[in-house]
Amino acid sequence: MATESSLSAHSNLNQEMKRERRETFGGSDASKLVPELHVPHIDLNKFLSGNESDVEEATRLVDEACREHGFFVVVNHGVDMELMKAVHECMNEFFTMPLDVKQRAQRKECGKALNDLGMKILEILGLSLGVSREYFKNFYEDNDSRLRLNYYPPCEKPEVVLGTGPHTDPTSVPILHQDHVSGLQVCVNDQWYSIPPTPDSFVVNIGDTFTVCHTKLQLGFFIFHLPSSKLN
């Protein structure tokens, strides 16, 4: 990733990395300037226990979140966090490798763990939409999942550099795992909010598919990731 000054000084760098002026989001600490979005924390272990009140509470919170902004956080989810720690360590090493080595990467163990987590989340989404908890699990049983790793080196002026730009997700249930560096932001009612990292948790963003189901409108919630000025 390149800073504004180095983009000007090195003609061989791709100018598409640099944001248009109208797309900048404040100073180098822009991620600290936006208010935090308060999202519910869903205890998946309680939901899966079968206790009626816990199931109803999780369903209610997810339904409200999906209608308001499309985000919630899952905790006690059953995913081995040592595995996720290893994934982050491997990712840091991965992005220092030559391209031909990167193309041979294997992601099966992590992909399976997150796919299993997605199946659990589909149970709550099913109940929140008034169908059985097995309805979407059965529908997505033979799904194709995609694992994406985003890496941003430290950047002196992250507000002028393209990270993962503003977008909606055309998928069903994106599951996001953050490290300790803030940068995830979501646009709700034309206002940008941050979702800070929470240890041992995953951020769930309903994609365009479930946005239509919950809001009856064909639109998604814009999100983007802002690089940090000091940290990877």
TrEMBL record:
Residues 142-232 form the Fe2OG dioxygenase domain. Coiled coil: none annotated. PROSITE patterns: FE2OG_OXY. It comes from the Eukaryota. One of its GO terms (molecular function) is metal ion binding. Residues 1-29 are annotated as: Disordered. InterPro entries: DIOX_N (IPR026992), IPNS-like_FE2OG_OXY (IPR044861), IPNS-like_sf (IPR027443), Iron_ascorbate_oxido_reductase (IPR050231), Oxoglu/Fe-dep_dioxygenase_dom (IPR005123). The keyword Metal-binding applies. It holds the Pfam family 2OG-FeII_Oxy. Keywords: Iron, Metal-binding, Oxidoreductase. Residues 1-15 have a biased composition (Polar residues). Belongs to the iron/ascorbate-dependent oxidoreductase family. This is Gibberellin 20 oxidase 1-like. The gene is LOC111467371.
